[in-house]
Amino acid sequence: MPDPTDAEAGTGPASATGKGLRGGSVGLLASVTLGLSCVAPAYSIAITLGFVTLTVGNLAPAALLLGFVPILLTAFAFRELNREMPDCGTTFVWTTRAFGPLTGWLTGGWVVQVATLIAMTALSQVGATYLLQLLGLHSLAGSSTAVTITAVALLAAVTSIAYRGLHLAASVQYVLLGLQLTALLGFGAAAFARHGAVTPSLSWLNPFAFDGFGPFAEAVMLCLFIYWGWDALITANEETRDGERVAGQAAVISTLVLLATYLFTAFAAISFAGIGTGGTGLGNPDNAADVLSTLAPPVLGTAAAKVMQLAVCVSAVSALLTSLVGSSRGTLSMAAHGALPAAFARVHPRHRTPGFGTLFIGATAAGLLVLLTLVSADFLGDAILCIGLLIACYYGTTALACVWYFRGRLRNSLRDLFLRGILPLLGGLMMLAAFARSAHDMYDPAYGSTSFHGIGGVFLLGAGSIACGTLALAVARTRFHRFFRDGRTTVAELTITED
Fold first, then answer.
1. For 256, how many CA atoms within 13 A lie in the half-sphere containing its CB?
2. What is the C-alpha separation between 423 and 72, in angstroms, rounded?
3. At 341, which CATH number?
4. This model's pTM is above 0.90
5. Rounded distance, CA 127 to CA 314, Å?
6. What start and end residues bound the annotated signal peptide (predicted)?
């Protein structure tokens, strides 16, 4: 019997799209859930809030708010482009249509995929560590070999779920995201209610109180990372009911939910713990790597703190699953438009998922995790830090692609001028400014844990990833002649379709 949730009521089973995906598999709620899940809110705020507070003290909420501005402006660009070109290739298709196949393949395809793969290695490692700790296997949690084996097992599990279909993935995400948000809201409410918690101040949101541009820029860059990932939901636009409209709405809604969740948690944590440099204070460097693990026991009690630990574990696994779903659909679109080998365009005949792409990306993430772990634990940490450079690169390019693509229509209405022109332009410029600032900071050998001939390892990994992309692009141009020859018109139609 067909699953009635696969299509709108009364319309029967969902039909296959031009690429073979199952159309109408999810609605607005599932799309928002997928977007929030990929961001991993519990994990992201746990590992970021402490470092932001070390940088700007009790102005951390202001940094969260300011870091959100370019994200929201970019979300408007994603929404408008998706309305015009609802393709699961998203940034690849949009930047190709705006700037041509070279930019589309490199920034809309390669950069996105590399950033996601690196993030997947981090998420699987974090999920594995927390899982072993929850099971009481603390000695194994301290063993890189045991953590890596467990992380590979988690990757295999989420690959299996993603392989079986978007509807199953979305159903799993309802539970995982619900646990995260419940844990964060419960933590915040309990922190505010604890004896000694101070009353939050609106001055913590003052954007003009930062002590110079340096701390401000560093804090905002950190905050960009914790919002990253919501765009994965748009890769499911061809499987979403009324995807050209709903996916864009879900992108904006998910970013607003993230902002509210992060601000509430930050206010609660600062109110309870303060920004002191000792004990549970958020200014204590020993707490920066995971403030929720430090604060959960005194706020919630030892038993309930386990729930917060579970929430962070679930958050990492949840983001891992959504990252895999989004990445496999990106490669599907690239192959369907003739920019990758045809194998990536294969869709499972029953599950209607990009089977080969899902398995390939899951296996590649596992291989990258093992490789980076064998090289050095510090190397893996620096690889994670370089993601910010890649995020700013492709977000900024996509926002500017919106302005350039719609440039001839900006005078049609005030709405078009603002939502397709002014706001995306501001978002794109902010992102590229963040890219430049990030590259400058990462060049310092003291940034991160590694360096080479006086150059920061984080910069080499970030810039190196983009440089490797240019080499891969040169190889791709020799193999996919039609895609690179026909230019912007190539992604207006499918090169490879299902038989």
1. 8
2. 9
3. 1.20.1740.10
4. no
5. 7
6. none
- 85 assigned to some structural domain: yes
Q: Tell me how many domains the chain contains.
A: 1
Per-residue pLDDT of the chain (499 residues; tens, 9 = 90+): 333 333 333 333 344 455 556 555 667 787 788 778 778 888 888 888 888 888 888 888 998 998 888 888 998 999 899 888 888 788 999 999 999 999 999 999 999 999 999 888 888 888 898 889 888 888 888 888 899 999 999 999 989 888 876 555 566 777 778 888 888 999 999 999 888 888 888 899 988 888 777 777 777 777 777 888 777 777 766 666 766 677 778 888 888 899 999 999 999 999 998 888 888 888 888 877 788 888 888 988 888 888 888 888 888 888 888 888 888 888 988 998 889 998 888 887 777 778 888 999 999 999 988 988 887 766 666 777 788 888 889 999 999 999 999 999 999 999 999 999 999 999 999 988 888 888 888 888 888 777 788 888 888 888 889 999 999 999 999 999 889 988 677 776 655 444 3
Q: How would you label 413-443 residue by residue, b for 16+ Cβ within 10 Å and e otherwise?
A: eeeeeebbbebbbbbbbbbbebbebbbebbb
Please indicate, yes or no, if residue 319 is contained in any of the structural domains. Answer: yes
Q: In Å, what is the CA distance from 97 to each residue of 246, 349, 385, 397?
A: 22, 30, 31, 12
Which residues are CB-contacts of 285 (< 8 A; sequence separation ≥ 6)? 54, 277
- Let me know the angle formed at the C-alpha of 69 by 381 and 216, rounded to the nearest 5 degrees: 60
SS3 at position 455: strand
Structure tokens of 239?
């499987």
The CA dihedral of 28, 401, 319, 24, to the nearest 10 degrees, is 30
> In this structure, are residues 345 and 163 in contact, taking their beta carbons and an 8 Å threshold?
no
**CA separation for the pair 169, 268 (Å, rounded):** 32
* CA–CA gap between residue 444 and residue 462 (Å, rounded): 13
Can you count the helices (H) and strands (E) in the chain? 20, 2
Rounded to the nearest 10°, the torsion over CA 375, 377, 383, 387 is 160
- Cα-Cα-Cα-Cα torsion 63, 67, 72, 75, nearest 10 degrees, comes to -150
- The verdict on residue 19 lying in a domain is no
Q: Exposure string (b/e) for 48-75, b if CB count within 10 Å is 16 or more?
A: bbbbbbbbbbbbbbbbbbbbbbbbbbbb
> What is the domain range of residue 47?
26-492
- Domain-embedded: residue 3: no
Angle between helices 213-227 and 243-273 (to 10 degrees): 130
At residue 285's C-alpha, the angle toward residues 280 and 288, to 5°, is: 75
